[in-house]
Amino acid sequence: MLKQLLLFGLAATTSATACAADLVIAEKGNTDYRIVIPAKSAGEIVDHWLAISAKLMQATFEKNGFQIEVVKEDAASPGKPGIYLGATAFAKKNGLTVETYDDWTYHIKAVGRDLIIAGNDKQDPVYTVRGSKTPLALLGTVKGVCDFLREYAGVRFLFMNMDQSLYAPRSDARGAFNADGSLKIDPRSIAFLPLEKIAVPDAIDVKKTPLLRASYDHSYETFYNIAMNFFPRLSNVQGSEVVWYQVIPTAQYTQSHPEYFALTKEGKRSCELKWGFDHYVPYCVTNQGAQDLVYQQAEKLIAAGEKTISINTMDGFRLCQCNCDECNRLFGIKAEAWDQIYARGRSGKLWQAVFRITERIREKFPEARIVLLNYQDTPVSADVIKAFPENVIVQIQFASQFDFDRLKGVEFPAGICGFEETFTGFGQAGPYLPERTPEHMAEVVQAMARNNVKWSMRDGAIGYVRGIQAPAYYVYGRMLDDPAADWKAIHDEFCTAAFGNTAPQMTQFFDLLHMQIAIYSDFFGVFMPAWSRKYSRSRYHDSKWHVMSMYPPEYCADADALLTAAERAAKEPDVKARLRLIRIEFDYIRKMARIFFLQNAWTMNPSQANLDPLVDALDNWHADLERLAGGTGRSTFQPLSDWPEMRPFNGHFYTHAALENEGYQQQWNKTCLNWDTRAIRAGILTDKHQLKVAAVDAPPAIDAPAWGDASELFFKDRGGMPFNNVRTSMRILRDQDALYVRVESLHPSQHPEDMYEKEPDGNIFTQEYVELGVMPPGSGGKVYRLAVNPVAGSRYDSVVTLDQRNRMIEDVKWNGKWQFDFQTSGEKGPYSLPTRVWTAWFKIPFSDFDAPPPAAGETWRFNAARNRIGQYMLWSDASRVTEIDALGELVF
Fold it and tell me: What is the C-alpha separation between 479 and 487, in angstroms, rounded?
């Protein structure tokens, strides 16, 4: 396979210089050619793409001083040679029956002085662009045009810009065209190298089939994606998905068929519990009724004409968690603890349950193919499974040849496809740092070629780091054209085209970068040898460790010097814009690394002299992000002024790039990136925790304006720091009869709507709660404890004392007349927890403590805490909210 690709690569990559004596299309500022497109094609989207492909070719000629017209075939006057694009009558007359191709194959053929570039172009009958009504299409001709322009006309498709819809046809206007009819082109993402001549080999007759039928999800088709072989997964490759939680929604089947859902160790069905969203709910994979519904959905899709569909494996081992008799027999072990659930998954016995469905499909639809992913509880190895059914295509999770090596001894009669763990956004160092080296990506492509992968999807987005990671994307895409190519030459090709006269500095810059990240790319990266949940969650190897390992001060200084030299030497506006994007991403990394090294210095020597520069560096890093996003929170990163089609950090929210919350396999919550520097500057680390309580004339309701005038107090982690991403603050007021406390808690551990209701004095401490410790003067050492969840009626109170041995004694018989209310803000959604706030409101009559209203100047002891399940935050640092020696003071 590699030998064949190598032979083609030698033929297909012949440069314009090498073919100087061959078929000359343009030379010395002149051309007598025209670009010819079909009078009518297979539909609107095909017409549109052939038109903009012709316009891109026209722009390429014009940038080199060659004027060339674009005409439709039925309007083309005789006598002039043409470059014929698509299924023209001329192409058909000369034997190019491209309609027979069912992939991105294209044909370039010279007929006399005429040139044909044609592939199969047709609208997908099922899929549209994700999140829009724009149809997807198979566009073999467009792939041929992109390769022609790169190989013979000096065009380089360099960067993924952010305006993914630029070339999509729109109902109200053609977004791809300027007012004069010319094509809108982003000159920063597409480079046009100067050429004196455009020529192809004489009598060229090349048919090329790309290595993969698809290597992207249902994303926008752009010139970059097509040129780089990032083809969308069309329905002729892998059609619709059958998803358990969509086929068996809890709302429809909880009452009528609870047996469809997993049986818990407590004897309840999972549908009876609160999960928040159906895709979290475990199912009973062996239940015949549940299997019938999955089969029937697959049957509908196949009967409607789909030839290849997927039956999705659920995330989180949710098909391995049922304790019914049939599931216990299948797995041979109960699922009463996570160790048992993981053991079920590792056994691979879930395959047997799913094969009951695929076998039914094979009997009725022998030509249909079912895609199943080897994921978590469906591992693939000869120890687990020897051979797959003849109608099952296995989607292999892989990041390198190591993952294919595990398949030795397993038979795949229907073949395999891929599920890449290459560019994912799940790397332990975070989603906005480069994840892979170009060399690694070249090896990935070669592994796919060796193992005959027909198509591949990616686990996560490819484009979070569109500047610094661009050379790796470029090598990856170009290697898909020719797996036997020299990746280093492709890398240098990128640097030369992207950075012009600054290419020497930027080549060194990237060589240095890739040397630094190689151990991460090849060892710690997703699915690589050191990547594991155990490792990634180990106590002292959090995400910052990877950043510090890859980007030490010496590297940052040298790389910064190279980038600065390039910035000073750059002359062309397009090069300057590309360098600015890389500067933004590099400074993000460089300043983050500096923060972590300063944090280490402060941790080793927690002095004010070490704290001040760390706090300054944190504020500076966040200020950079705020400036680029135009705000904080859910503010999105704005287009660059010198590159309107590009947004840094994938156009995500400020919150995401600021790493305010944990990511998949990433640990950020306990790093200093989330310290509340405002609270630190205000002295929270040395605060005496004494508050002068303001008085009000009327009881302040939970949303009363009076709270805005009360002092705001912040909580910090027990024994630790205050954190912005889970900011917890408190305000306190009083009137003649009662004390009022209002606690605001950002980012609850789960949506309040999904928390369980508890009776008074019930065990509310199994989920998030806020609690107070109140010790009036003269209480005889009693501390009154009040706790609440964000759930109606959920409250707890007790009296805590110490015995003669200083042991805590808690009397739960005490019941005060205090009142509690709560409210939540922010909309509920799968990814909205970081922005949710729940507010607890207490009204505590002074009479609850058998005490008169406090007199002016009187001091009560007090503390407040929030337990965010695993994260305990207090106003006054203590082991618990009722610890007497740690109580703060309320001064009335």
Answer: 7
